[in-house]
Amino acid sequence: MKDKVFGVLQRVGRSFMLPIAILPVAGLFLGIGESFTNKTMLDTYGITGLIGPGTFVNALLSVMNDAGNIVFENLPLIFAIGVAIGMSKKEREVAALAAGIAFLIMHASIGAMIKIHGGTEALLSGASTEVLGIISLQMGVFGGIIVGLGTAALHNRYYKIELPQVLSFFGGTRFVPIICSIVYLIVGILMFYIWPPVQGAIYKVGNIVLASSYAGTWVYGLMERLLIPFGLHHVFYLPFWQTAVGGTAQVGDKVIEGAQNIFFAELGTPGITHFSVSATRFMSGKFPLMIFGLPGAALAMYKCAKPEKRKAVGGLLLSAALTSMLTGITEPIEFTFLFVAPVLYGIHCVLAGLAYMLMHMLGVGVGMTFSGGFIDLFLFGILQGNAKTSWILIVIVGIVYFVVYYLLFTFLIKKLDLKTPGREDSGEVKLYTRSDLEAKKNDQNENADELSAMICRGLGGKNNISDVDCCVTRLRCTVHNSELVNEGLLKQTGASGIFHKGVGVQIMYGPRVTVIKSNLEDYLVTAPDKEDTGYAIIKKESEKDTEKGIEKKVQGKVISTVILNSPLTGEAKDLSEVPDEVFASRIMGDGAVVVPSDGNVIAPADGVISFVFPSKHALGLTTTDGLELLIHIGIDTVKLDKKAFETYVEEGDKVQAGDKILSFDLEFIKNNAPSIASPCICTALNSNQKVRLLKTGDIKAGEALIAVDAFE
């Protein structure tokens, strides 16, 4: 039950991302437009003649101001459509249309009920508002979310409905707007009676939050960071930003609900002397963290890296720190120490709560659109002036935070010997990706299909995938059977981390995740219903044959044996000795490993080339006996991106044992990869087949390496 609830909450959280994603652009329009049309600012900087009233620039800025305002004024409708799109599984454009219709009908029904029962005069003060010209109840974004969730549920249930022949025209997707219209006419009538007490309860919650003062602000900041690994932070902070839980305020002649809405309403209202700290308390705390604290943590990780690895890790950490400072996107840094040193993340969450509390205590009035980086600070703090925002206090506290993060993280990393970037025992230096399996240079579509196939199989196959979506940096999936998820396989797709809770699976890819998600959705349209082993890089795990690297025990009489030769000259070893957990545990298949002494690869048997990986570091061979082989040169060599490899075959080529199929620069791989150990494995053995190692130690290409015995 808990896992199902988590899966639903995860989907709800990610559905919020589409409407939230428009806020930075709307905020940019509003911030620039309001700042440079504000009379006080124009007079202060002496630019009234340049961009003041009557100039073309002023007219353009006024348009930008109104363009930003219209988004914030209609967020309920935007959330209704966005949530419906995010929660629907197929035919999402139909869900979007149905949500828009349902939203209008619900509020029209509420408006009619208000007229029937004596008009707005019969309601409590502030209980009514105008929604797209319709007199309705003050439901705010909650109204949009109610429509979006309900529409998505109806859509997912009925978009394939088959009606009797006489009504068949109205079946399928055409039925969705119809049923939504009927349902939300009823919902609108019910909401006239239900919402007022609900609204009263929300106001009480908001009053409790406001009364909690600084302690409540600290808890808010702590929870907002603490929920990030679970992907539930959007569900947590959105009510504070967009509903009365975050407070209400009279701005101009309107009652505004939600901290972010209050801030932007004040931003566009002349005569505001200082932005409401009771609203910005839920936003200002991010700035010391994003712009100062996390860069301090990045510097600490750099200083603690091994001297020989500092150059490599420095570029990664600098890029991540600049991303955090400018845009407020912090996951490259946060997930690094979340997975390698959870204690650091726990301390980070506590300090995050403290940052929010300090900004509240100091009366900082800087709001934001989405991220909390320097761009937001410049638009909504610096440009608005220190008198209205007290933004200079962010810099003062931020400098202290930089020092605290640097000293504290340096001490803990050294004291606890935490394996932060540059301190790993392996030769590889990584920040938030383990390996990059997308060879980008020449054939992006082909590469995307290969990566999508790997993700699909790692999630248990097409039939096991219920839902696919993404947020800023994470691919968020829901599966039917969580036991079929292969985390080891998913890590091979270049993920920086994986969070798997019940049927909810989150795979961290960074900012490129939107492209990965789109490619995966396209792939799933035509993907086979059962797993395809043609790519060989992925082993379809047998439910009974293998468990955590334990070799299968096959008994009985041997009825046939296939001998496979070594494709390389070098030192032959048992597969368990390869310095890679996935290969060594035999998750991908069974075989042997050769540490090569030269750079030539030959075909180990007669057969057909089943695939050549785009980066040329690996290829597959299907033998005439039906065995599927993977020859993988080195460990984590995909990142070399063709630089050390040359292939002499293509997919579909027939080869004979001993034919040269690939060559590589041995010295280059030694210097640029964690290991030159090269696995040669059978990836799709039957339940009655077992691999037997024939030789260890020195071996020449073409000599017998392994035998595959088939038992009765």
UniProtKB/TrEMBL annotation:
Entries under PROSITE patterns matching the protein: PTS_EIIA_TYPE_1, PTS_EIIA_TYPE_1_HIS, PTS_EIIB_TYPE_1, PTS_EIIC_TYPE_1
Membrane-spanning segments: 12-32, 44-64, 70-87, 94-114, 134-154, 175-195, 201-223, 335-355, 362-383, 389-413
Pfam hit, one: PTS_EIIC
Membrane topology: Multi-pass membrane protein
Residue ranges annotated for the PTS EIIA type-1 domain, each copy included: 580-684
Biological process annotations from GO: phosphoenolpyruvate-dependent sugar phosphotransferase system
CDD domains in UniProt: PTS_IIB_glc
Active site: C471
Residue intervals of the PTS EIIB type-1 domain: 449-530
InterPro entries membership: Dup_hybrid_motif (IPR011055), Glu_permease_IIB (IPR036878), PTrfase_EIIB_Cys (IPR018113), PTS_EIIA_1_perm (IPR001127), PTS_EIIC (IPR003352), PTS_EIIC_1 (IPR013013), PTS_Glucose_EIICBA (IPR050429), PTS_IIB_1 (IPR001996)
Organism domain of life: Bacteria
Subcellular location: Cell membrane
Domain PTS EIIC type-1, residue spans: 3-425
Keyword tRNA processing: no
Molecular function terms from GO: kinase activity; protein-N(PI)-phosphohistidine-sugar phosphotransferase activity; protein-phosphocysteine-sugar phosphotransferase activity
Keywords: Cell membrane, Kinase, Membrane, Phosphotransferase system, Sugar transport, Transferase, Transmembrane, Transmembrane helix, Transport
One CC-aspect GO term: plasma membrane
Protein name: PTS system, glucose subfamily, IIA subunit
